[in-house]
TrEMBL record:
The active site is at 330 (nucleophile), 444. One of its GO terms (molecular function) is ABC-type vitamin B12 transporter activity. Keywords: Cobalamin biosynthesis, Glutamine amidotransferase. It comes from the Bacteria. NCBIfam families: cobQ (TIGR00313), PRK00784.1 (NF001989). Catalyzes amidations at positions B, D, E, and G on adenosylcobyrinic A,C-diamide. NH(2) groups are provided by glutamine, and one molecule of ATP is hydrogenolyzed for each amidation. InterPro entries: Class_I_gatase-like, CobQ/CobB/MinD/ParA_Nub-bd_dom, CobQ_GATase1, CobQ_N, CobQ_synth, GATase_3, P-loop_NTPase. Belongs to the CobB/CobQ family. CobQ subfamily. GO terms for biological process: cobalamin biosynthetic process. Pathway: Cofactor biosynthesis; adenosylcobalamin biosynthesis. It comes from Aminipila butyrica. The keyword Chaperone does not apply. This is Cobyric acid synthase. Residues 251-451 form the CobB/CobQ-like glutamine amidotransferase domain.
Length: 508
């Protein structure tokens, strides 16, 4: 079985996911086969594997850093919130049930056999497993039914490195407080602490580190600076939503829906110097962008109601009427249609009027579509982005609804992409459609190929009367590999890797 080590954090957004990805890269560089593992993840950013199974996006990023194919074994339980009190529970990549928080809390220990099976299978295939905890391990009201923090550490016999976020302040109090709330058995599992997201002179920090070790009797194995690496964020705590955007020639606005999912679809635009990508959640923030994107969501109908109530729907309809381009992905595509029907209460229940910008009707079904696809654009030289014709696409679909065009309206719309492969099986079907300047697709990752973004940005520049000839393509895979290497360099320079290897070897 593999050796194991676990990163836990004193709070959400302490940087656990990034630290796990970095350690995966370090161990890979050192010649070990390594895989990430998180028994239970709560996130709306998910991914579909080659087998058509759904897993958390964070473990996909960590698998990429480890240089391996993502597997649902790395994240056997995924919770996708549908509202403030309930989630869709996904077990081993497939929908298990929709549960409110109390029901899931009462039954989550029932998931332990599946978690153990997934972990054991993964551990039999690799030299090292880097586990990730969730939230805080010291939430005393949740410890009894824990399956993701100390319970998982004991199950995997994984020594724990406890990370605290110094950027938000209170890092020493959070580390000492977390250790104080642990049982004696749990405290013994912690073999090192990490001060994460540090800015400044480490020598000024040293007295605090000395006092920390005196208080908790655990060594500090790293003071990791605020690393400026461009790696996909896990969930809605991302700083992308609130940070100040660069000034650029092209302004792209993504609607920040309350239940936004798979916002990593748009990261590729941020790699272009010509683009400013920003997230907006009010009419006042919208302005007059060159392109609007409505992203995916875990609850299309409720998020459409939110847009209706805050005035964004009316603003988007007016924007589309001006001939400017709009792109809806997955749930955003569904919103653009005329009508949404939910006969099985999959989301909101009942029937709802859509935005009416595309002549589609969406019916939410009991079964979720989960596929990887390969395709190419087939614009036929029509529409705002006519130049996309023939450009290759790769991505995946995750959706409950199916959207159809009424027969009487078939001549009013154009197919957007032609699918040639579904989950590694040859196919011949269409996906997505467009009408004039309004585009809709179920494909997540539709923008990831370098020629897609290059073409879209070039068209936007040309329509503003700007020179599009200097827009460069970007090899996204090579870019990501460079970022993972930079992350590994940052950890090697600021963590005691010799001590970490010792902790890994000694176990618990």
């Amino acid at each position: 079985m593999a050796k194991a080590i676990m990163i836990q954090g004193t709070m959400s957004n302490a940087g656990k996911s990034l630290l796990v990805a970095g350690l995966c890269r370090v161990f890979k560089q050192d010649g070990y086969s390594v895989a990430p593992f998180k028994s239970q993840n709560m996130a709306l950013n998910s991914f579909i594997t080659k087998e058509g199974l759904e897993m958390g996006r964070a473990q996909v990023v960590q698998a990429e850093a480890a240089g391996i194919e993502p597997s649902v074994l790395m994240n056997p339980i995924l919770l996708k919130p549908t509202n403030d009190m309930a989630s869709q529970v996904i077990v081993n990549g497939e929908v298990y049930a929709n549960m409110d928080a109390k029901t899931y809390y009462q039954h989550k220990r029932d998931m332990v056999p599946e978690i153990k099976k997934a972990y054991d299978q993964l551990a039999s295939q690799y030299d090292i497993i880097v586990l990730e905890g969730a939230g805080s391990p010291a939430e005393i009201n949740l410890q009894e039914n824990d399956i993701v923090n100390m319970y998982m550490a004991k199950l995997a016999k994984a020594p724990v490195l406890l990370a605290g976020d110094i950027d938000r302040g209170g890092v020493f109090a959070s580390l000492v407080g977390t250790m104080a709330l642990f049982t004696e058995e749990d405290r013994a599992m912690v073999k090192g602490t990490i001060i994460n997201k540090f800015r400044g002179d480490k020598t000024i920090l040293q007295p605090g580190l000395d006092m920390l070790e005196e208080r908790i009797h655990v060594p500090t194995v790293g003071v990791v600076p605020y690393l400026h690496v461009d790696i996909d964020d896990e969930d809605s705590l991302t700083e992308k939503f609130t940070r100040k955007n660069k000034v650029a020639l092209i302004d792209i606005a993504v609607i920040r829906l309350p239940r936004i999912s798979n916002f990593t679809d748009f990261n590729v635009f941020e790699y272009s110097e010509a683009v400013s990508l920003r997230y907006v959640d009010s009419v006042g923030q919208l302005g007059n962008p060159d392109l609007i994107i409505i992203p995916g969501t875990k609850n299309t109908m409720e998020d459409l109601l939110w847009m209706r109530q805050c005035g964004l729907e009316a603003a988007l309809i007016k924007y589309g009427a001006q001939g400017k381009p709009m792109f809806g992905i997955c749930g955003g595509f569904q919103m653009l249609g005329r009508e949404l029907k939910d006969p099985y209460n999959v989301e909101h229940g009942g029937t709802m009027k859509g935005m009416g910008l595309l002549p589609t009707t969406t019916v939410f079904e009991r079964e979720k579509t989960r596929t990887q696809i390969k395709a190419h654009f087939v614009t036929g030289g029509k529409g705002y982005f006519a130049a996309l014709d023939g450009v290759d696409v790769e991505g995946y679909e995750i959706h409950m609804g199916q959207s159809v065009v009424d027969e009487a309206d078939l001549n009013k719309v154009n197919d957007l992409t032609h699918i040639t492969e579904i989950s590694s099986v040859k196919a011949n079907q269409m996906a997505g459609l467009f009408q004039d300047n309004i585009y809709g697709s179920y494909v997540h990752g539709i923008f990831d190929k370098e020629n897609v973004v290059k073409t879209i940005v070039s068209v936007l520049l040309k329509n503003k009367g700007l020179d599009e000839s200097a827009v460069a393509g970007l090899d996204v895979k090579a870019y990501k590999e460079k970022q993972y290497d930079l992350l590994a360099d940052g950890l090697r320079s600021n963590m005691d890797m010799e001590r970490i290897y010792q902790i890994l070897q000694e176990g618990v």
